[in-house]
Amino acid sequence: MEPAGIEDSLRRRGVRLTRQRQILLDLIDGSGKHLDAEQLYQMAKEQDPKLNRVTVYRTLKLLKQGGLVDELDLMHYGGDQHYYETRLKQEHAHIICLRCGKVEEFFGDPLQRLRKQVEAHLGFQILIARTEVGGYCSHCQALRAREIEQAREAEAAPARPRKRKPG
Amino acid sequence: MEPAGIEDSLRRRGVRLTRQRQILLDLIDGSGKHLDAEQLYQMAKEQDPKLNRVTVYRTLKLLKQGGLVDELDLMHYGGDQHYYETRLKQEHAHIICLRCGKVEEFFGDPLQRLRKQVEAHLGFQILIARTEVGGYCSHCQALRAREIEQAREAEAAPARPRKRKPG
DNA sequence: GTTAGTGCAAACCTTTTGCAGCTCT
DNA sequence: AGAGCTGCAAAAGGTTTGCACTAAC
């Protein structure tokens, strides 16, 4: 279950594979979710209560610099934290539902097209690309339509006290 | 030179167009660059020395929530600040040179293709999309090749003997 | 005249840094 | 054995909040 590719890459550069880094790598790679630094810290602490928050940040910086993990902000849904994932998978876009927070991944060919066009038209040598899309998932579109409808009704027919409020 | 569309949108929602907000809107829309909160604050202060940093943040939040400006991180080149631009232009990707920091904009069709595919395949209603690409611009590719070459020379032929085993 | 908006100070939160001691190779 | 790494404390940077005063509508 370990991200062998990442561990090899680290070893090759003389970076030590400490217990703390193992824990964090396994979490980033194995959780299946996009975790932020604080979540990583809390989960890592369960395996090693002495593991320090600072170590989380230092490990993330190390992995970022080595190009082994990507840093995402997921459209700032939920705040300004950053989220992390390994770069083992094929390049993909993240599609975030701004209502329920669900994150989908998209692997279509426009991503490769974009890379090629940027390289060709702008002469860039691309190291990393990131696409994030915010919107409403199909489930939340329906819910939102209902919310808006209810808000309209509430505005059109005001002063309909459901709760007792002395006045 | 004012972003009339934005001002209308604000007025329509009963948001007051204060002197401070005018200054900030003009800067975001008219500077032609991607400014972060601190830069905006410094530039705004030149027009109104009493304008407070807090007002910058509050205005940015307001504009973000209204969907009137986009918040970018430009691949975190230069730190974790956020950069801002109005949403008046056609959707575009930002291509950042990780060596010199130059930001190019890309308007190609893969962006629209991506939108369409995400809507079709995932059933999303897209509100906002953001693509950021990091790499080396053509100018910096050459410079970087030279840097690497020089680093290799410095390691291969130093004044003192090599530490590694002889090859 | 109301109510939203501003300035100021202080709090807050995430991330970084300095340093002494520990540990991986 | 020794460079590299960790933990701790404290600082740094960016952003938010509470409150009294001000100004846009």
The CATH fourth-level homologous superfamily of the largest domain in chain A: Winged helix-like DNA-binding domain superfamily/Winged helix DNA-binding domain
CATH topology of the largest domain in chain A: Arc Repressor Mutant, subunit A
Name the assembly state: homodimer
- Class based on secondary structure composition and strand pairing of chain A: alpha+beta
Figure out the total of helices of chain A: 6
Largest interface: A-B, 38 and 38 residues
Low-confidence stretches of chain A: 159-167
Chain-averaged pLDDT of chain A:
86
Strand content of chain A: 15-25%
Strand order of the largest sheet of chain A: 1-3-2
Q: Give the tally of β-strands of chain A.
A: 6
Q: Largest beta sheet of chain A, briefly?
A: 3 strands, antiparallel
TL;DR of this structure?
The structure is a homodimer of 167-residue chains. Chain A is 46% helix and 19% strand. With 167 residues, chain A is α+β, with helices and mostly antiparallel strands.
List the helices and strands and how they pair.
The structure is a homodimer of 167-residue chains.
Chain A: H1 4-12, H2 19-30, E1 35-36, H3 37-47, H4 53-65, E2 69-72, E3 83-86, E4 93-97, E5 103-106, H5 110-122, E6 125-136, H6 138-156
Parallel strand pairs in A: 4-6
Antiparallel strand pairs in A: 1-3, 2-3, 4-5
Chain B binds a DNA duplex (25 and 25 nucleotides) through helix 2 and helix 4.
How would you characterize this protein structure?
Chain A has 6 helices and 6 strands; from the N terminus they run H-H-E-H-H-E-E-E-E-H-E-H. With 167 residues, chain A is an alpha+beta fold. Chain A has 2 domains: 1-89, Winged helix-like DNA-binding domain superfamily/Winged helix DNA-binding domain (Arc Repressor Mutant, subunit A, Orthogonal Bundle); 90-157, Dna Ligase, domain 1. In chain A, the strands form 2 sheets. A 3-stranded antiparallel beta sheet of chain A has the order 1-3-2. In chain A, strands 5-4-6 form a 3-stranded mixed beta sheet. In chain A, helix 3 (37-47) packs across helix 4. Strand 6 (125-136) of chain A pairs antiparallel with strand 6 (125-136) of chain B, so a sheet runs across the interface. The structure holds a DNA duplex (25 and 25 nucleotides).
